Amino acid sequence: MDAVLLTGFAKVGKGERALDLGTGTGIIPILLEAKTEGQDFEALEIQPESAEMARRSVMLNNLQDRIKIVDGDIKEASKIFGAASFNVVTTNPPYMTENHGVKNPDEPKAIARHEIKCNLEDVIRESAKLLKPKGRFYMVHRPRRLAEIISLMKEYRIEPKRLRMIHPFADRDANMLLIEGVRGGKSMMVVEPPLIVYDEPGVYTKEIHRIYGF
């Protein structure tokens, strides 16, 4: 769900070049190609098996001319693609610090969930390098790390501009967040109305239906 909600929040305009960091099986660029006017997507993935699955997904959707999957490390992203190369960077990074919580015994899942191969600062630092001036950064993450997220974004001159909290139910605490920043932007942030996932157990809200295209 995290990746799908990010694609309902991110914006890619016609003629803009977009990069997804840590793309996994490629769902974010595939959905953004369908939902936005963007036609030029690249996606970086460190795990070879996931990158190959992403390539197959791109081929099955006949999007080889619009989406390119690249094998590589997020920490080296600006060297791989070049500085100031993208109008948009999206990411659904690992949420947990390396020593937080129980790691999944399945290594690919552990890498996707824990900061084993890269951490939050790596993601934001490289995104700042990759973005053109006034380029946009979109991320889905966890509320408990919001202070750290905003601090790092400001440190690397990605100004937080939009924030939306995601709640499983209207009376529950937020368990995810969506944030947009602008490279070198002016200081002003809009906190959008919360996104509620379920009306009741097993029943999605109308907005979730809209985002998923049900």
UniProtKB/TrEMBL annotation:
CDD domains: AdoMet_MTases. Transmembrane segments: none annotated. Pfam families: MTS. Residues 4-143 form the Methyltransferase small domain. One of its GO terms (biological process) is methylation. GO terms for molecular function: methyltransferase activity. The keyword ATP-binding does not apply. The keyword rRNA processing does not apply. It comes from the Bacteria. Keywords: Methyltransferase, Transferase. This is Methyltransferase small domain protein. It comes from Eubacterium ventriosum ATCC 27560.
